[in-house]
Amino acid sequence: MISRRSTLALLSAAPVAALFRPSRGLALPRLVTHDAEAGPLLTRALTDSSFWKSGTVQRYTDRLYDEVRLVELDEGYLARVSGEGGRDFKFETVVSTIFDNMQRLPEVEDGAMAVERLGEGTDPLVGLPFVDSFYYLDFTLFYGTYAQRMYKLIDDERTILYFEQLRPPVAGSRWSTYQARIDEVVARVDRRALFNAIVPVSQVFGMFVVEPGQRYSTRVSFTTKIHFGAGTGFIARVGSQMPPVIKAGLRSGFESCVAIANMLEPA
């Protein structure tokens, strides 16, 4: 059985065409990133309805989510989970959950050892507001870490919260301060086993699309790619690319976000 703990980071239905409908009278959005792969791939996944037809789909009933899709890439998978959370949420609550409150993830998910909000601002290249965060996750056999920058793009009736890995060139002058805080987080985390390695994620990016739902008030579609590259170890590299692991991680991540939304807006 694949545990929630071991698959957390892959955090994380209405007709497929609903996700890709053009905004009223506006051009389809182009997602700009510093990562040369992330922006074009996420833009295609967002705007080209044929993209997901090449992959697999699994549908669910009576769950917080109702669909999981995987598309195989040259290296790894792009995966998506979509659902309406099992109840009505205010649109702003859902956006705030993802953009402003992911540091509460350890409160609802024991595999999240720490999520540290590092800073915020407006990215000069992307031209959008961002939030920088650091994730320290327990994968049972090892610990995975990464920093990310998430952007907020308001596109007519939907809000697109997309993210890419945060590296020193992206952070610029902030990086030295960020690194000091990251080191503090790593030092204070109480690890289950000291011999378990801390493995930095090689690449991570994705997006949350928040839009009006059909059965309930809002729908969230969470798309992501996570990759452990050369030098990260066999278990991390191979395990993170197994479709059952990816699907379990998506489901776990979605459920955790709904749990935070329930804390912000009790039923």
What's this entry about, in short?
This protein has 267 residues and is α+β, with helices and mostly antiparallel strands.
Would you give an account of this structure?
The protein is of the alpha+beta class and 267 residues long. The protein has a single domain (5-14, 29-239, 252-264), classed as START domain (Alpha-D-Glucose-1,6-Bisphosphate, Chain A, domain 4, 2-Layer Sandwich). The chain has helices at residues 16-19, 38-47, 91-100, 105-108, 168-171, 175-188, 234-239, 243-264; strands at residues 56-59, 67-72, 77-83, 112-122, 129-138, 143-155, 158-165, 198-200, 203-212, 218-227. Strand 9 and strand 10 form a beta hairpin. The longest helix is centred in the C-terminal third of the chain and has 22 residues, at 243-264. It starts with 15 loop residues before the first helix and ends with a helix. 40% of the residues are buried. Mean pLDDT is 87; it is low at 1-26.
Could you give the topology of this structure?
Elements (H helix, E strand, L loop, with lengths): L15 H4 L18 H10 L8 E4 L7 E6 L4 E7 L7 H10 L4 H4 L3 E11 L6 E10 L4 E13 L2 E8 L2 H4 L3 H14 L9 E3 L2 E10 L5 E10 L6 H6 L3 H22 L3
Parallel strand pairs: 6-8
Antiparallel strand pairs: 1-2, 2-3, 3-10, 4-5, 5-6, 6-7, 7-9, 9-10
